[in-house]
Design a protein that fits this description.
This protein has 613 residues and is α/β, with parallel strands linked by helices. The protein contains 25 helices and 19 strands. It has a six-stranded antiparallel sheet with strand order 2-3-1-9-8-11. A six-stranded antiparallel sheet has the order 4-5-6-7-12-13, covered by helices on one side. It has a five-stranded parallel sheet with strand order 16-15-14-17-18, with helices on both faces. The longest helix has 30 residues.
């Protein structure tokens, strides 16, 4: 896993811009702490920071191939899990390899297949190819959008990077955010291609972006399509298990220490059990890690979202699978620490507003990185198999909006209540969300003869797999790469996604519960307690000291009335929320405080030009 960046300027020789290319590359140091490289030739410059995972001495980048008609150069981030098979196929076609890295396989694959190289890859990746034979740049992203990639067109070319910070390090890019950018921040809706920062775009999943002297073009090489599902229940369950066995086997390949993220839910438990069985066959013991909060297991109070604490189920799985397990226990001071908040905002480049859930994820990954370099995560199983409550909530099922917003509003309240009333009016989020929903829903293909219920559930599944999951994948990537940890997501393998997406809802919920197919496909591996457990979201602290710390920080912010955050946030709302007698332990008020403090930190760190007109 790595960080990539680059610059193409058809009117310049970028060998004279070494300082700027270095500055862009160094913003990716957290993503790649093991090595760095910069390459420039004529109008193209590429930068790379490496996190060494496979072929530690041989995978240095930028990687180049000399041809009779020009140099082809590659910077690559991610993993191609089928690189061994592709290497054999390419060798049979006459290609010669000098390293054992998957990066060289991707480079040679481009020389063999050109733009279609991504169609041959199974994995998570974002990479850039400069083809000196034709003077063009290709930016390519994996099918599900696991690895990020952004670009910023310029008058004579383009800037690109794994994260916006790499692009913003170039003087040609202005740190400017307009109303559409703010709308993205306050809606829990990820609009394809939007990058929040003005004039910046995100390479969409399953897409190739080509830049040459004629401009920028996009080509979609993969998208989630509707197909008939002919398999019966037993065959479907067997196929899911077979796919999971193959996926986990591939994703355990690494030349560095590996582990799993274990929450005690069905997803992470099934994945951990599969990994434990496969490593156990080779005499290895899987490491597992879980996040917990000081005193939470003893003082846990069930609420609308979380009926049970994670820790007892985590320990059941660790015992059953024989993992080398560690709980990472966090206290409220660490979760509320402004220095941690700053790390999170720098990692995301944006004020995500998820408060302790962002802080705890960052601190969990930081602790894991002391022991492992690669972690497997259960991320996206809920989107694939239908695990969220909104899949079963009739109000969310029938709502003419993104289904997750129904429960989100019910639990957290109005996310804009912290904002100045005039800004809320200018944002007009209701229209923005409605337009986005109509656009997203229109992309869902209906199967011939599909019932109204089945089509409705197909649409809900499609929306989660093409919109909601991208929010979570981005969060996971930024938090992990901020500490140099590679997190792999087996449930995002496109073969599994395509197969389960097209299984009818009656099969996905055949026992009347969430994730029926996953539960039965792994029933022989997981403890009965986990088999019977109801879905519980990522944990959040219940310690009242956390809310007290937020209030104190809000008071400190109010003492600075000229702070730019008050161009966005209503100071009267914040003053009410900061009072000791305000019930800020409630999720809605607490989230408002977290949102405000995140915004303030972001404005201090990035000093963006916020255009409200």
């Amino acid at each position: 896993m790595c960080g990539i960046t680059g610059w193409v300027s058809f009117d310049c020789d970028l060998r004279a811009e070494a300082a700027t290319l270095d500055a862009m590359t160094e913003t990716m140091a957290c993503r790649g702490p093991d090595d760095r490289g910069v390459w420039a030739e004529g109008p193209a410059g590429l930068g790379h920071r490496r996190l060494a995972i496979i072929d530690l001495p041989g995978g240095r980048q930028p990687m180049t191939a000399a041809t009779p008609h020009g140099t082809v150069a590659l910077v690559y981030s991610g993993e191609a899990y089928n690189f061994t098979e592709l290497r054999g196929e390419l060798a049979a076609r006459g290609h010669r390899f000098t390293t054992d890295s998957d990066t060289e396989v991707v480079l040679r694959g481009y020389l063999e297949w050109g733009d279609a190289v991504a169609e041959h890859l199974n994995g998570m990746y974002a990479f850039a190819v400069w083809d000196g034979r034709t003077d063009r740049l290709l930016l390519i992203r994996d099918r599900m959008g696991i690895k990020p990639l952004y670009y910023h067109p310029t008058p004579d070319g383009v800037l690109f990077g794994s994260e916006p910070k790499a692009i913003l390090a170039n003087p040609l890019a202005r740190p400017r955010v307009g109303l559409d950018g703010l709308r993205e921040l306050f809606t829990m809706v990820k609009t394809p291609g939007h990058a929040v920062w003005e004039d910046m775009r995100e390479v969409e999943p399953g897409t190739v972006v080509t830049v040459d002297r004629t401009g920028v073009r996009r080509h979609v090489y993969w998208e989630l399509r509707t197909r008939p599902h002919e398999d019966d229940r037993a065959t479907t369950i067997s196929t899911v298990r077979s796919l999971l066995d193959d996926i986990v086997r591939r994703q355990l390949v690494a030349d560095v220490p590996r582990c799993t993220l274990l929450s005690g839910g069905l997803d992470s438990s099934a994945m951990t059990a599969l990994a434990a069985r496969q490593l156990g066959a080779h005499g290895e013991r899987v490491r597992s890690f879980a996040v917990d909060f000081a005193g939470q297991a003893d003082r846990f109070v069930a609420d609308e979202l979380r009926a049970t604490p994670d820790t007892p189920f985590v320990h059941d799985v660790a015992r059953a699978c024989g993992t080398d397990h560690r709980d990472i226990v966090l206290d409220p001071d660490a979760l509320a620490d402004p220095a941690v908040r700053e790390k999170v905002i720098r990692a995301r480049d944006l004020p995500a507003g998820l408060g302790d859930m962002d802080a705890s994820l960052y601190l969990l990954f930081k602790a894991i990185r002391e022991h492992s370099t690669v972690a497997l995560s259960g991320e996206s199983a809920d989107e694939v198999f239908g695990g969220y409550r909104q899949f079963f909530d009739e109000e969310a099922r029938t709502a003419d909006t993104f289904p997750w917003l129904v429960g989100f509003g019910r639990h957290f309240g109005d996310d804009t209540e912290v904002l100045r009333p005039e800004l809320v009016k200018a944002l007009d989020l209701e229209t923005y969300v409605a337009d986005g929903y109509r656009s997203a829903a229109a992309r869902v293909e209906r199967l011939d003869g599909e019932s109204d219920l089945e089509f409705r559930m197909r649409r809900i599944s499609h929306l989660h797999l093409t919109r909601f999951v991208r929010i979570l994948l981005d969060r996971k990537d930024r938090a992990s790469m901020a500490v140099g940890l590679e997190v792999r997501v087996p449930f995002c393998d496109h073969r599994l996604v395509e197969y389960v997406y097209n299984a009818p809802w009656a099969l996905k919920s055949f026992d009347g519960r969430e994730k029926s197919l996953l539960r039965e496909a792994t029933a022989d591996l997981i403890p009965r307690s986990v088999y019977d457990r109801v879905k519980s979201p990522y944990p959040s602290t219940q310690d009242p000291r956390y809310a007290v710390a937020l209030r104190r920080q809000a008071e400190d912010l109010l003492a600075r009335p000229d702070h730019p955050v008050f161009d966005l946030v209503d100071p009267e709302w914040l003053r009410r929320a900061a009072r000791d007698d305000t019930p800020v332990s409630g999720q809605a008020a607490r989230r408002g405080l977290e949102r405000t403090l995140d915004l303030a930190t972001w404005l201090e760190l990035y000093a963006p030009e916020v255009a409200l007109g």
